[in-house]
């Protein structure tokens, strides 16, 4: 093989190697958006909680106000054109945080019921920069006869990046709503007078959101 041919072949191999490297890099950076990635990660959260509970013999929580922390990071496929975590990624990652919270708090009584999310409100305070780590802190904010309100905080150190309020309901498999007070009794939670005072003191804000929601929906 003459020199020009060898040069062309060598250049071609280098081009394919570079192209392959770029392709693998793009796939790696977007791995969280692969088909079934959401399902895999959601189940991984549940398995992780149950494995730790079995290995370390951790008893189910009896504190209804317990805060559950879920780690997160702003990867490449979470970013928008402004070079920070995009709005939709907050909701996607909240799915993992809520799953983590429910597995921690109610996983021992989750059989035969389902937790239906009815909406999320998000207030943004400070952007999450590319590849930055953060923690999603989830806890019960308050509850009423039907709806339960969870609060989520996206935090990194002392910085609050976003505050979220999620509304969900507990239902039987047949679709019948389970009053949250009844479900707490099933799960073995003992709600004290202090718990009730805290719940009632925080409920008016949630009630205001319900009224606001009803007014908006009535215009549709």
Automatic annotation (TrEMBL):
Cite a single Pfam family from the UniProt record: 4HBT_2
Judging by the UniProt lineage, the source's domain of life is Eukaryota
Q: Which family does it belong to?
A: Belongs to the lcsJ thioesterase family.
**Name of the molecule in the record:** Thioesterase domain-containing protein
Q: Which organism is it from?
A: Synchytrium endobioticum
- Lineage, highest ranks first: Eukaryota, Fungi, Fungi incertae sedis, Chytridiomycota, Chytridiomycota incertae sedis
